Structures are given as structure tokens and as C-alpha cells.
Amino acid sequence: MTKFPITDLRGLLLQPSRRELLKGAGALAGAAALSGLLPDGAVAQENVLNILSWPGHGDPAFVKPFEDQYGVKVVAKEYVGGEPMLALMNQSPPGSFDVVLADAEYIGMLQEGGFIDEMDPADYPLADYWPEFQKFPLHWQDDKLYSVLIRFGYLGLAYRTDMLSPEDVQSYEALWNEKVKGKVGFFDWYLPTMGCLSLYNGNRPPFDIDDAAFDTLKETLFSLRPQASGFYSMADQFAMLTNGTAAIIPGIGDWVVLLLQNEGVPVDAVVPEQGGIQWTESMSIVSSSTKKDLAKKFIQYASSPEGQFRSARLPAYWASIPNKKGWELMNEQAPEDAKKLRHTFDARNVMDEYKEGKIFIRQTPVQQDIETWNDTWSEFKAM
Predict the structure, then answer these.
(1) Nearest Cα to Cα of residue 218 among 377, 383, 381, 2
(2) pLDDT one-digit tens code per residue, 318-329
(3) Which PROSITE patterns does the UniProt entry name for this protein (predicted)?
(4) Contact criterion met (CB below 8 Å) for 227 and 182
(5) In order of start, what are the domains of the chain with their CATH numbers?
(6) Mean pLDDT across the chain, nearest whole number?
(7) 3-state secondary structure of 67
């Protein structure tokens, strides 16, 4: 696992200082954590559960049943990207958060940094999960559980169906197609795009590559610069696909296109023949929380059939869910949505590509450090 500095909540420096994490983008995230993090007095209120998450997870569509059941308020602080999440955890006062929703590739760092607690597997409905996710590797350290998988999805190519055909996007080669010259958009985060391009280069797994393979990956990435239309935030990707500024975006998938399809935008997503990347969102109990029992109850709700059903259709962006009973509930109450998410039992579904070995878990770099990949991405953007 890639290591970089994390100061735990007791102020112990666990690893040598890293040049950029707590400066630059991390400092902005930390400043947000220290100023106006929550409404006045919210941290001290016993009936408030504070969560740190990707956008949308505090939406009433998801949290209201939990709030009503326990007579509490869920307050979410949002971030985009793993490094800003780590900076917020690192720089926020102890007790700022009770639950953190993080990508699986960062769970080990949170555990090493002393930010999250060990969890009892018996407290959560893991037996109801698809077998592939009952002991998801990045959530366990030394056979101890530190996070529970809530949502996942696959990253490959998202594209405008009025500009490219299904045949065009069977391979990542589509990114160099003359049809999309100047219209290749990029989610402004190095991991998704570089992971998919690493698969295009034949690296399986895509994030554990030697320096020679990494040099080739840089060449592949840089060769796309003449095709680029821009580098987009999470929200901007929806807009750019909608207005056609971007005809194709690597490193994203159904989480973007399903909502746009519901609005009538001619878009689709595909896992090309070289494979795709799996993203995950998982919940952990923050070690400095003073409301750990409530935090546990919230994660129990989020992993339950009802919580899973609601989380899958989060208004901010849809996602796949690992709980089979959540699938059953969706097929009973929203069968058309189950079809859109490919959460059906009588037809090809999202688990098939996983079982076929086409999907690789997103990780931070293994043989290089995070900074090397991130600096390469910055160089690409500046070309």
C-alpha cells in the first residue's frame, strides 16, 4: 500500500511529511473543516450525527428514515477526492465526524492513521451481501474489519450516443478517434483516468506496475492532450456531456450517465474489452466520535435492505449496491430502476462482469507513490 504522512488525532506523526498533501488542495479542504464545518453548536448536540462523505449522502431521500427512527439529524460535510478527504480527517478537531464514507483504497490509510475503529462483522448484514463482497479485501487489515461496503460502480467510458456508436467504444482506442478530436473530457482526478489507460496498456492489475510500465502509461496519457476538451469537476461532467462539449469521458460510468439518461440526454456507459475499474464507497466509525453507538446504527441502516435501496438511487448519483436483499427490495418496489441499474436476477447483471474478471478494484499506486502519479496528472493538464 502506498504510504504518505498522516497525523493521527492524538497528534502523533506516523510517517514522514509529504510535500503537498497538507498544503495546496489539502490545505483548502482543511480550512473548510476548521471554518464553518457545521452549523453553530451542531458538533456538541447529542442528537446530531456528523458524517464526512462524497456529495449527496446527507440527502433526505437517504437519511430521513434513519432520522425519523432515532429522532436525530444527519449533517453531512462533503468532499470530492481521496486526498481532500484525508486532509479533512487530519486537520479537523477531534469529534468533528462520527462516520466517514470513503473510497476503499483509502481505508488502509485511515486505519494506519488511527482515524477509524475496528468493527465487529457480526454487527452488519454481510451474510446478505454478494459472496464477492462479504470480505472485501481493502476493508480488512490482519483479519480485522474497518469499513462496510455501501455502494460501488464500474468505470470505463461514458459517451454521447449521437457522436459515437457502441462499436466505436468497445476499446479505449475510442479516445483517439477522430470523431471526438477536441471532445475528450476528463474528470479532474488522476486515479480513474490513469487506471483505465493502464488497463488499455495491458496492465492487469492497473495500479501495480513497474517504472517502465509507468513511463509507458505517461506516454499514453500525454498522447491524449490534443484530443482534450477540458478537465471537469464532479458536477461539471454532467453539464459537459449534456451540452456536447464532451463527447466521451474516460474513467467514469453509470454513476453519471444513468441520471442523464433519465433526463433524455443521449449518453451511455461501457466497460471496454480491456476491462474497467471498480469504485467503492464504504462507511467507517470515526475513532474520535463521542456517538459511536449511533454511528454503528447508521452504518447498520445504510447496509440494510431499505438503506441500500435508497442509497442506490441517491439523487446526486446512482450506484450499485452489494446487498442482495436490497436488490430484492428494488425489484419489488422499483423494477424499472432495477433494470436500469442491472440489478435483476433473471438477466445479465452487474455481477457478471465482476465474475468474468473484467473489473479491477481501484487502488492507490503500489510501486510508485501517490505524488508521482498526481504530478504526472498535473503535467498532463498543463501541456
Answers:
(1) 377
(2) 999 999 999 999
(3) TAT
(4) yes
(5) 24-152+279-354 (3.40.190.10), 153-277+362-382 (3.40.190.10)
(6) 89
(7) helix
CB distance 253 to 330 below 8 Å: no
Helix-then-strand count for the chain, H and E: 14, 12
- Calculate mean pLDDT across residues 220-234: 96
For 25, the grid coordinates are 488542495
Residues 139 and 115: beta-carbon distance below 8 Å: no
CA distance linking residue 263 with residue 59, whole number of Å: 20
Residue 50 pLDDT > 80, yes or no?
yes
Grid coordinates of 24: 495546496
Distance CA 188, CA 191 (A): 9
| CB atoms closer than 10 angstroms to residue 202 | 10
Of 356, 374, 343, 348, nearest in space to 152 by CA = 343
Which residues touch 250 (CB under 8 Å, ≥6 apart)? 156, 157, 172, 175, 184, 186, 192, 193, 196, 197
Q: CA quadruple 301, 298, 360, 336: dihedral positive or negative?
A: positive
Q: Under 8 Å CB-to-CB from 63, ≥6 apart: which residues?
A: 57, 74
Per residue in 242-262, pLDDT (tens digit) is 999 999 999 999 999 999 999
Q: Which of 233, 235, 321, 249 is closest to 280 using CA atoms?
A: 321
Pairing of strands 48-53, 73-78: parallel
Cell of 265: 440526454
Q: Which residue has the cell 459472496?
A: 131
pLDDT band of 45, cuts 50, 70, 90: low
What is the rounded CA–CA span in Å between residue 333 and residue 326?
11
Reading the block at residue 105, the C-alpha cell is 483504497
DSSP state of 129: B
Do residues 354 and 278 lie in contact, with contact meaning Cβ atoms separated by under 8 Å? yes
Each residue of 305-331: b (16+ CB within 10 Å) or e? Answer: bebbbbbbbbebbbbbbbbbbbbbbbb
Strand, helix or coil for residue 140:
strand
User: 44 pLDDT exceeds 60?
Assistant: no
Per mean pLDDT, which range of 9-18, 38-47, 348-357 is the poorest?
9-18
Strands 184-187 and 140-141: unpaired
